Amino acid sequence: MEFLEFGHNPWLVAISLIVALIAGATGLSLTKDLSNKTLPQRRLAVALASVALGGGIWSMHFVAMLGLQLPILFYYDAAITLVSALIAILMVALALVLLHFTVRTKSVIVLAGTIVGAGILAMHYVGMAGMQLCRPVYSALGIVGSSILAIALCIVAFWVAYGVRSNRTIMAGTVFFGVAVFAVHFLAMAGTQFIALDNIREFGPVISNEVMAIGVILSSFVIFGAFLWVGTTYLVPAEDLDQTALASEPQPTAKPAQSDLRIPCERDGGKVFVAASDVAFVRADGHYTQVYTMTDRYFCVWPITQAVQRLIPAGFLKVHRSYIVNPNKVARFERSKDKGQCNFGVEGLPPVPVSRSHLKEAGAAFG
């Protein structure tokens, strides 16, 4: 078995790193501030971010492969190449769904990073399987090393980007993501040799490096265009920010009045703003909350922690780890040993439990 000598074009190596970084910045920026968006907007943002991150993984790989210098002519199987792109996009989509549509715990962040790391590996090796007229031969060290690096760096990337959501952490997560995609590819390539083949193992249409270059240029163009689009969100003047988000921000120097505070909610697929003064209580619902008035119930994109931050300064009272009540709406407070409940005197509106740790505060508030 005679292995082929090979090398890489340094310019295309550098460009592949830039593509990975731009894709990371685009995808992670698209998922910024989703708690202030409606459910359809969140779904669209996660879908676009999945295409940006997954497409960036694919584009980085094939930009680097365009720089692969072998002494023979080789081609790619179009069907397998397409499958490799779909794998990357779907794996990233699964990770983002976990991060944005479930309770974002530490274990969920680790799981999401693991899934994306596995997606990078799957995309790489499936993409390599599409090579025609030469066959890659892998070493156990290259597979194991690239697997550990992919998963570890992706976990770090999502841990940084999603631990505390800010522009700084998103950019730091971008660096880890871009380095993960780039380093995994070249570590895997360092443990790979190539053998020349006489026949094409055709599964789908065969495409040349020239046609592949056109596809990679188009995908990179879309990613760079999306990056320029989302990049403008970091440059928007303060006075042009979303007025809804600004109106609901607690003021550090003044206690907000309930009549002035509006809670962004959804019902029947539409977005509505409920006055805090009309709210009876707020209940945690996974990563989001349910807002109850005396007559209606609404879905709210705020997690319970954000609801506490916004509503406690406006006079609301936390009576349970999952409940916040408006004292102005409580008709009767009942205590029984080490627990209690708030009743609102309205048929159909359930009572709110008061936990033992909040009994003293509730007793003081309701007498």
Describe the overall structure.
Keywords: Membrane, Transmembrane, Transmembrane helix. The chain crosses the membrane at residues 12-31, 43-68, 74-101, 108-126, 138-162, 169-191, 211-236. The structure is a single chain. With 367 residues, this protein is α+β, with helices and mostly antiparallel strands. Helix content is 51%, strand content 19%. The protein has helices at 10-30, 39-66, 78-101, 106-129, 140-163, 167-190, 209-231, 243-247, 304-311, 359-366, and strands at residues 7-8, 68-69, 75-77, 131-132, 134-138, 192-196, 206-207, 262-267, 270-275, 279-285, 288-293, 297-300, 317-320, 323-325, 332-336, 339-343, 352-354. Helix 1 packs antiparallel against helix 2 (39-66) and helix 4 (106-129) packs parallel to helix 6 (167-190). The termini are far apart.
Please outline the helices and strands:
Layout: E1 7-8, H1 10-30, H2 39-66, E2 68-69, E3 75-77, H3 78-101, H4 106-129, E4 131-132, E5 134-138, H5 140-163, H6 167-190, E6 192-196, E7 206-207, H7 209-231, H8 243-247, E8 262-267, E9 270-275, E10 279-285, E11 288-293, E12 297-300, H9 304-311, E13 317-320, E14 323-325, E15 332-336, E16 339-343, E17 352-354, H10 359-366
Helix pairs in contact: 1-2, 1-6, 1-7, 2-3, 2-4, 2-7, 3-4, 4-5, 4-6, 5-6
